[in-house]
Amino acid sequence: MLFFTQCFGAVLDLIHLRFQHYKAKRVFSAAGQLVCVVNPTHSLKYAPTRCAAAAQESTEQGVLPPCHHHEAVHDPQLVPCTCPLFSCPWEGHLEVVVSHLRQTHRINILQGAEIVFLATDMHLPAPTDWIIMHSCLGHQFLLVLRKQEKHEGHPQFFATMMLIGTPSQANNFTYRLELNRNQRRLKWEATPRSVLERVDSVISDGDCLVLNTSLAQLFSDNGSLAIGIAITTSKVHSSEAEM
Q1: Does position 187 have pLDDT exceeding 60, yes or no?
Q2: Cα(205)–Cα(50) distance, rounded to whole angstroms?
Q3: What pLDDT is stored for residue 85 in this prediction?
Q4: CB 175 within 8 A of CB 141
Q5: 56-60, 119-123, 130-134, 146-150: lowest mean pLDDT where?
Q6: Residue 95 pLDDT more than 50?
Q7: Where is the Seven-in-absentia protein TRAF-like domain (predicted)?
Q8: Helices (H), the chain
Q9: Cα distance between residue 59 and residue 124, in whole Å
Q10: In angstroms, how far is the first alpha carbon of the chain from the final one?
C-alpha cells in the first residue's frame, strides 16, 4: 500500500504539472515558448533567515559561517544579496550573485528568449512572492511577481524584470510582460531595472506592471496567472552596434 500510494502520488503530481503546462500553452499558443510553473513563497524578510539561523548554529559550533557581515573595511565593489525574500547578510561581487541565488536561496533559472511564467495559488494572502531567474541574450534577469498591500485590505500584484547587472547594462534591454485570456490582452513594456536598485524601490516607485485584485482575477485561470515574457535588446543599443 505504501508503494502504491507513493507511486500514485507521483503520477498525480506529473499529471498536475502537465495540466498546468497545457493551460499556459493554451493561453500563449506561440510555438517554442518554455513554460515555467512557479509556486508562491511567503517573504521572510522580517523573520530569521536561513543564513541567520546557519550563522547562529555555526557560531555555537565554533565554525565561521558562510554568510556573515564583513567587519573589515567595506569593499565598494561588493553588493548585498539581491534576493527579495530574505534579509540575507551575504555580500559578494556582482558576477557571483547568480550562484548565490541558486545555491543559497534555491531560485530556479530558465533559458530562452520567450518564456511563460505561470504563477500558482494567486489567492494566498499578502505578502507573497513568485520568483525565477531568466537567462537570455547572454545575461541573467530576475523576474519578481509580488502580492502586497499598499493600502490595508487592498492587495495588489506587482510584476517587474530586473537585470543582474549594472544600471548602464540594464539600459541595453527591453522587456515585455503580456497577459492574454478570454479575448483580452494586457501588455507592459519597459527597460529593466538593475538589481542594485532593489525590488522594494521599484515597487514603491510603481515602475512595473501593477494589477489590482479584480484585474488579476480577470486574467487568471483557477488561481493561476500566466505571464508571457520576452526580452530584446533596445533599439538604441542595436543602432549603436550597427554603427
Answers
A1: yes
A2: 29
A3: 77
A4: yes
A5: 56-60
A6: yes
A7: 135-229
A8: 2-27, 50-60, 97-103, 167-170, 199-205, 213-219, 235-242
A9: 36
A10: 69
Do residues 113 and 105 touch, judged by C-beta distance below 8 A? no
SS3 158: strand
DSSP E strand boundaries for 112-207: 114-119, 128-136, 139-151, 154-163, 173-181, 184-190, 193-194
CA separation for the pair 192, 3 (Å, rounded): 48
Q: What's the domain range around 117?
A: 31-41+75-233
In a domain, 3, yes or no: no
| Cell output for 28 | 500563449
Note whether residue 243 is domain-resident: no
Q: How many alpha carbons fall within 13 Å on the CB side of residue 183?
A: 0
Query: What CATH number does the domain containing 205 carry?
Result: 2.60.210.10
Give me the percent of the chain exceeding a pLDDT of 70. 69
Higher pLDDT, 182 or 77: 182
- CB-CB contact of 210 with 188 (8 Å): no
DSSP letter, residue 106: -
Q: Cell numbers of 89, please?
A: 547578510
Cα(135)–Cα(162) distance, integer angstroms:
12
Q: Contact 119/38 with Cβ under 8 angstroms?
A: yes
- The cell numbers describing 172, all together, are 541595453
| Cell reading at 237 | 543599443
| pLDDT-based confidence at residue 232 (cuts at 50, 70, 90) | very high
How big is the CA angle at 81 (ends 206 and 162), to the nearest 5 degrees? 35
Q: What is the pTM of this model?
A: 0.71
Query: What single-letter DSSP state applies at residue 72?
Result: S
Determine, yes or no, domain membership for 192: yes
